[in-house]
Specification:
Layout: H1 2-5, H2 10-19, H3 26-34, H4 40-47, H5 56-64, H6 70-77, H7 82-88, H8 96-109, H9 115-124, H10 127-133, H11 139-145, H12 153-161, H13 167-175, H14 177-180, H15 183-191, H16 197-201, H17 209-217, H18 223-232, H19 234-238
């Protein structure tokens, strides 16, 4: 029956949903939603049937289908498992409203994850979850996050400029070739008083004279960094 439903035109599909809803099986409901002729109204009808939505596969398809009326999609987001929420949160075929609801669920549930689940999630999560996991204290989670293709320079600058960044995180950023090559990150590493002195000092030679003078004149700058700047060039502090 499932393969036959795939051949139905829109009128046949509509007739099946409206006249045989009480008898539709899980596979048949999925076949309807996989049809190129399915409409938002048909999906909405299925979404309002408690028997059909008791099947996890049906709830998952309702949430992921781009034609699902948003009220129904957002409702069933609450009943999906973490791995599916994580996957759907970064799928561009999922409507933005649904993805925002998914992100809310992910953020609300992240504290319940095991370390292994956090590490796996950090490698491929959405920007909303990045902003949460970025402040996780476990270096393994942060290390996985640094390899997430959705992580942006501004995310790391925000972290480095905050009081929440740990010395270990700052050293990990400084050791990451992809990120430490960004000027804003180098500068933020030097300016953060939590950055280990040796790590901060290695970034000085990449900064402009203007920034070096500003850092030299900053009362929060350590004596060690001031001496490093002095050794680089007398012109830096005299101009």
């Amino acid at each position: 029956m499932r393969s036959r439903i795939q051949q139905f035109d829109q009128e046949q599909l509509k007739s099946l949903v409206t006249k045989n809803l009480a008898h539709l099986t899980e596979d048949e409901a999925l076949a309807v939603m996989e049809s190129m002729h399915v409409t938002p109204r048909m999906i909405g009808t299925i979404a309002q049937n408690p028997r059909l939505t008791s099947f996890y596969s049906v709830r998952l398809r309702i949430v992921s289908h781009r034609q699902t009326p948003q009220a129904h999609a957002v409702k069933f987001v609450h009943y999906l498992y973490w791995p599916d929420l994580l996957r759907l949160s970064v799928e561009v075929t999922v409507p933005a409203t649904t993805r925002r609801a998914i992100d809310t669920q992910l953020v609300n549930r992240v504290h319940k994850l095991s370390l292994g689940e956090k590490i796996t999630s950090a490698r491929r999560c959405s920007p909303a979850l990045i902003k949460v996991l970025m402040f996780d204290r476990d270096p393994k989670v942060f290390g996985a996050l640094l390899n997430n293709s959705r992580l942006r320079e501004e995310n790391l600058v925000e972290l480095v400029q905050s009081d929440e960044a740990s010395p270990e995180q700052l050293m990990m950023i400084a050791a990451d070739r992809r990120w430490v090559s960004r000027y804003a990150i180098r500068r933020a590493l030097v300016l953060n008083v939590t950055t280990p002195k040796g790590t901060a000092a290695t970034q000085l030679r990449f900064l402009s004279r203007r920034d070096l003078r500003d850092i030299y004149g900053n009362p929060k700058t350590s004596v060690y960094l001031r001496r490093c700047i002095e050794r680089m060039s007398d012109r830096v502090i005299s101009e």
